[in-house]
Design brief:
363 residues; alpha/beta; eight-stranded parallel beta sheet; 8 strands; globular; binds hypoxanthine; binds zinc ion
C-alpha cells in the first residue's frame, strides 16, 4: 500500500475482535517508532570484544560469558558503571558506525520504521575521542539505515547529569558546528541528586539553537523531577517518567497535555524500578490517557530489543490487549519529532494492519 491510499481508522469494535493469541504476531508486525534507545546500550558483548581487540583496549572480563554474567544490576548506578566501561572500546568513526548499524538492522527486523537515538558524547570526549568522530560515525550509519532499510533515524545528544552544567555547556558548544546532524538534546545518567534545574542554562541555550528537548525524569527520581523537567527545562517528552503515578495532579497534567512518556519495561525490571513486569504501571498509564510509548533503553544490557519488550510486557499483563497495542504504536508516531504528514502515513499503515487482523479474527 502507498501512504496516499485512504484507510479507514480501525474501530474499537474491530480492536476488540482481535483474539488474544494473535497479539504476539501483531506486536511484532506493527510498524512503530523507537524513541528511547541509548546507542551505547545497544553494544552487544560480541561486538564489544571485537572492538576491544581491534583497538587494543583491555575489558577486564576474560570472555563474553563472563561479561554477560556481570549484567546483574541492583539499581541504575550499578548498570551505569558497567555501561560506561563497555563504551571504552569505541574509538573510531568506524566503531560508532558499526555499533549503530547493528542496532538499525535489529530495529528494522522489529518493524521499527523510525528511531530517535540517544548518544552520550561526554563519555567519549573524556577518553580523548573527538565529538566529530562520534557524530560522523553515527550519522553515517543513520544515512545507511534510511537508504538500505527504509528506516529513518535521528540523533539526540544527551548530557550526563552526574557531570557539571559547565561541562554540558562546553559539550553543546563543541557539538553545535555539527548541529545539522542531530535534532535534539536529552539528559541521562545518575538521576537522584542531579535534578533537572542543574541544567536550566544548557537547555535554554539548546532551545535557542532550535533543538528539540527531552529529559530522563521519574525513573528513580521523584515526581518533582518530572515537573522540573517540564517547567524549568521545558522538555517536550519525558524519558521513563513512571513515577508520575505517585502524584495524581501530575498524572492529570500529563494526560491533558499529552506529554509523551518513553517507557522501558525490561529496563525497569532489570534496574529494580518494578519487581516484575506483572507489577509494571504501564496499564495504569494508558488507562489514565497518557501518551505512553514502549522502548528498549539499553537492549544489549536489559535482555531484549523493542519487540521483546512489547511481547513480554503484554504476556505478563492481561489488561493489555489489541487496543493497547494500537495505542502504543500510534503514540510512538504521535510522540516522534517527524512532520505530521509522515506520522499520518505511518498511522494509515497501522490502521490497515489492525483492520486486517480484526477481519481475520472475525472469520
Ligand atoms: O536508563 C537510563 N537512565 C539513565 N541514564 C541512562 N543511560 C543509559 N541508560 C540510562
Ligand atoms: Zn534511558
Amino acid at each position: 500500500m502507498t501512504p496516499m491510499t485512504p484507510v479507514a481508522p480501525v474501530t474499537p469494535d474491530q480492536l476488540a475482535a482481535i483474539p488474544r493469541e494473535r497479539l504476539p504476531a501483531l506486536l511484532r508486525l506493527m510498524p512503530k517508532a523507537e524513541l528511547h534507545i541509548h546507542i551505547e546500550g545497544s553494544l552487544e558483548p560480541e561486538l564489544m570484544f571485537k572492538l576491544a581487540e581491534r583497538n587494543g583496549v583491555q575489558l577486564g572480563y576474560p570472555s563474553v560469558a563472563a561479561l554477560r554474567a556481570a549484567y546483574a544490576f541492583t539499581d541504575l548506578q550499578s548498570f551505569l558503571d558497567i555501561y560506561y566501561a563497555g563504551a571504552s572500546v569505541l574509538l573510531t568513526e568506524a566503531d560508532f558506525s558499526e555499533m549503530a548499524w547493528a542496532y538499525f538492522e535489529r530495529a528494522a527486523a522489529d518493524k521499527v520504521v523510525h528511531a530517535e537515538i540517544f548518544f552520550d558524547p561526554q563519555t567519549h570526549i573524556e577518553r580523548g575521542v573527538p565529538i566529530e568522530t562520534v557524530i560522523k560515525g553515527l550519522g553515517q550509519a543513520a544515512r545507511r539505515a534510511q537508504a538500505e532499510l527504509g528506516l529513518s533515524a535521528k540523533l539526540i545528544l544527551c548530557f550526563l547529569r552526574h557531570l557539571s552544567e559547565a561541562d554540558a555547556l562546553r559539550t553543546l558548544e563543541a557539538a553545535l558546528p555539527w548541529r545539522h546532524h542531530f535534532i535534539g538534546v536529552g539528559l541521562d545518567s545518575s538521576e537522584c541528586g542531579h535534578p533537572p534545574e542543574k541544567f536550566a542554562r544548557v537547555f535554554a541555550r539548546s532551545r535557542e539553537a532550535g533543538l528539540h528537548l527531552v529529559a530522563h525524569a521519574g525513573e528513580e527520581g521523584p515526581p518533582a523531577y518530572i515537573e522540573a523537567a517540564l517547567d524549568v527545562l521545558q522538555v517536550e517528552r519525558i524519558d521513563h517518567g513512571v513515577r508520575c503515578t505517585e502524584s495524581p495532579a501530575l498524572l492529570l497534567r500529563l494526560a491533558a497535555s499529552r506529554t509523551p512518556l518513553t517507557v522501558c519495561p525490561l529496563s525497569n525490571v532489570k534496574l529494580r524500578v518494578f519487581d516484575t513486569l506483572a507489577r509494571h504501571n504501564l496499564p495504569a498509564l494508558l488507562a489514565a490517557g497518557l501518551c505512553v510509548t514502549v522502548n528498549s533503553d539499553d537492549p544489549a544490557y536489559f535482555g531484549g530489543y523493542l519487540n521483546q519488550n512489547l511481547v513480554e510486557t503484554f504476556a505478563a499483563l492481561p489488561q493489555l490487549g489489541a487496543a493497547e497495542a494500537y495505542a502504543l504504536a500510534r503514540n510512538s508516531f504521535e510522540a516522534s519529532f517527524v512532520p505530521a504528514a509522515q506520522k499520518a502515513a505511518w498511522v494509515a499503515q497501522l490502521d490497515a494492519l489492525f483492520t486486517e487482523f480484526a477481519l481475520e479474527g472475525a472469520r
